[in-house]
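Many introductory courses stop at the sequence. We go one step further.
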Amino acid sequence: MQGVAGGTRSAPPKQRQTTRLGTWQTLSTLPAGFAGSSSPRSFSFDPIGRFSYCRNQWADNVAVFRVDRDKGTLTFTNQYTPVGDPSIIIFLDLAKTQR
C-alpha cells in the first residue's frame, strides 16, 4: 500500500527478502551430569560481544560461552555460575554512571 503525506505520494515499499533460518550449532547449557529438566530462559551478549550468557531457569545457573565472530559460533567456557531462577543480566558501565 502506498501512503500519502503532505499531498505527495511516498515511494512504494521495497520487496521483502525471505531468509531461511536453520540450525547452525547445537550446544548444551547444562553442567555435565545434571539430571533435572532443561529450560534456557534467555541469553545476552556482553557489551563488547566476546561472551554470551545463557540463563537456565530450572537448572538455576548462568552458562558462559565465548563468541567467535569470524566463524559465527559459540564455544562453552566450562563456566557456570549458580543463580536461583535467573531471569536477566544487565551490563552497566559504572564509569559512566558514577558522578
